[in-house]
Amino acid sequence: MIIRLVNWDEFYSELQQDCKLFIFILGVFCLFRVGFIAVMHSFLSEAATISDIAAALYYGFRISLKSAGLMVLMPLVCCTGLRLFLPWKRLSHIRLYLGAVYVTLLSFLFHARIPYYQEFRMAFNQLLFNTLNDDVSAIVHTVIEQYNLPVRVLLASATAFLLCRLLRRWLASKTYSFPRLSKWYHNIALRAALLVAIYYLTIFIRFGGSMTFAHNIDWENSGITKDQLLNEAILDDVQALYRAYILHERVSASTGLDMDPGRLADYGGYMAGHTVKSANLDDFLRKTVVGGTDAPPRQVFLIIAESYANWPLLPQYSNLNIANGLKGIIAQDEAAYVPNFLPNGMSTISGVMGVVTGLAEANLYLNYLPESYKEPYATALAPQMKRLGYSADFWYAGPNSWEKVRDFTLAQGFDSFYGMGDYDSTGGNVWGCDDYYLYEAVLGHVKSDRPGFHVILTVSNHSPYTVDLAREGFDPGIVAAGLPEKLRNDPEFIKKLGHFWYADKMLAQFVKEARRQYPDSLFVIVGDHADRVNIETNPPLFERYAIPFVVYGKGISKESLPEQTAGSHINVTPTLLELVAPSGFEYYSLGHSLTKGNDFGMNYGFWISPGHIGKAESEYSENHLTKSGLIPPAQDKIRQEIDSARAISWWRIKYGKQLKL
C-alpha cells in the first residue's frame, strides 16, 4: 500500500456523500415513523393530542439521529476514511451498496412492525429471540394466513426498490469543492475548523440531538407521551431491535438456585415457621394480622425515594444538613424509624420489584417474564390493599416506558399508573421530571372522598444532576462546612449532595402538605437503593448500602416498630398490612412484619440485623452500632434465611405457584 498525503478535495467530497447518506437514512426513519402512526392511528388513545404526536415525532427524530449515525459509520470508514490513503475512486460505490442494503432492511422492518405491533403492542421485543424455540411452522402459517405475508413482502419490495432509486439519484447530485483561501494559514485554520465541526456534530448525533448526557435520549427513557402507540413510534426499527436484544440478554442471564420441589417445600416451611401440607407455593406465604386496627388511615402514601441512603441520617453527618426534612419527620411523636434496612437490589427497578411484588431479588428480570403478566403474585401489595377498600395508583417521575414499569405495575394490580407524560413539568433530566412536579401532581389527584393507596417513585436524586439548586435555595457553603477538607472545594461532589438535599426537601414538603390536607393519612418512606454517593472513599458496609424505613401518621408511635428491628423491601408489604388492616385479615408475604420485631433483612448480596451487616456469600460482617450486647446471627440462620427467600422467589417467578413442573 502506498501512503499518500491527504487530498482535502477528495476528503471533502466524500464527506459530503456521507452527509447525504446520513440525511437520506434519517429521512427514511422519519417517513416510516409518520407512516406507522398514520397506518396504526386506530390504536391511538382518545387522550392523545396533536401536541403528543408532535412530541413523538420530535423525540423520534432525535433518537433516529443516533440510528442514522450508526448506519453511516461503516461507509464513513470504508469510503471517506480509506480514500485518505488509497486513490481508488470506486471505493465510493461501497457507500451506495451499503445504503441500498440499509434502506431495503428498513423497508422490510417497517412492514413487519405493523403486524408485530398488532400482535404484541410493541415495535419488536425480546420475543423475537424465542421464535426458534416455538412452533416455527405454526408461526409461519399464522403470518401467511392472518397477516397476508405475500402482499406485505410485495409492498416491502416495492418500497425498497423506490427508495434505492431515490438514493442513487441523491448520491449522484452535485458536491462542492473544498474552499481554497489566499493565505496558507487561513487554509490550515479552515481545515481545523472543519475537523472541530465534525467532532461536535458527532457528539450531537451520539447524544440524540444534545451535547451532553444529561439530555441524552435512548429506548429506556423515550416514552414521554401518555399514548402507548406514540411511545412505540418514537423508537425506529434499529432502536426497537436493540431494545429487544438487550431485554433478551437480561432474561437469558437470569439464573437460580439448584433445587428440587421437595427442597423448596422445606424452604417454604422455614419461611412459614411451621409445616405446610400443600403443593401450592402461595400457601406457605399465608399470614394473618394479629392486633391490627379498627380505624385505618383513609389515605396511604408509600414513597420510594431515589438513591435515599441512610448514612445522611447518622449523627456523624449532621453538619451536612442535607437530610433535615426526613429527620424532622422521624422526630415527630407519630413516627417510627428503622435504620437497619436494605434495598432489594442494586438498582431502582430491583427496589420497585421488591416493594410491588414482595418477592426477593433472585437474578430474574421479573418485569420481563410472562409469569408476571398472567395475574398479580399473591404477595403483590396493590391487590391486598384493594381488598381493604383502597384504590391503588402508582406515580413515577420518569417515562412510562422505563423498564416496562407501567405495564408491570398495572399487571400487578394497580388501578392506574401516571408517568411524566401524564402531568405538567418544566424541569428535569433524561430520567424524569423534578420531584416538585411529581408531588404536585399527586396532591392534585388525591380524592378525599375515597380511601386511596398511592405509591410514589421519585428520580431527582439521580445523575445527571440537573436541578436548579440555586433557584431552590441551596447554600453550598453550609454543606461544604460539614465536609472533610479534601471535599470542600469539589463543586461536583457538593452538587451531588445538593440533589440529596433537594429530594429530602421536596419529600418533607409533600408530607407536610399532604398531612395538612388529609390528616387521616399514613406515610411509608423508604429508599430504592444506596451505594451511589458517600463521603468516605471506602465506607463501611452499613453506610454504603443501608436505606431508611420510616412510617409516619395516623396510629403510629415510637413503639409501632420495636427498636431492635431489621428488614428489607420484602418486609414492606407485611409491615404496612399489619398497620392498616383489621385483626384476622389474611394476607400473603414472603417477609415478616417489622411490627412483630423482625430482626433480619437480606437482599441480592448482603444481610443486616440490629447492630451488624455482612456479605451474603461469605462470613464477613461488620458491627455498625456502638451499643453493646448485640451479637450477629448464627451462620446457619443467615444461610437459611437467604436461601429460603431467594429460592421461593426464584421458583415463583420462573415457574409459578405449583411445586411440580
Gross geometry: globular
- What is the first-to-last residue Cα distance? 64 Å
Count the DSSP helices: 21
Biggest sheet: strand arrangement:
3-11-10-2-9-5-6
**How many runs of DSSP E, i.e. beta strands?**
17
Helix-residue proportion: 40-55%
Give the DSSP E fraction (strand runs of 2 or more residues): 5-15%
InterPro entries: Alkaline_phosphatase_core_sf, OpgB/LTA_synthase_biosynth, Sulfatase_N
Pathway: Cell wall biogenesis; lipoteichoic acid biosynthesis
Membrane topology: Multi-pass membrane protein
Transmembrane segments: 21-43, 63-84, 96-114, 149-167, 188-207
Could you please describe the fold and organization of this structure?
It comes from Sporomusa malonica. The protein is α/β, with parallel strands linked by helices and 661 residues long. The chain has two domains: 8-248, no CATH class; 288-634, Alkaline Phosphatase, subunit A (3-Layer(aba) Sandwich). The protein is 46% helix and 10% strand. A seven-stranded mixed beta sheet has the order 3-11-10-2-9-5-6, sandwiched between helices. A four-stranded antiparallel beta sheet has the order 14-15-16-17, covered by helices on one side. The chain is globular and about 85 Å long. The N and C termini lie far apart (64 Å).
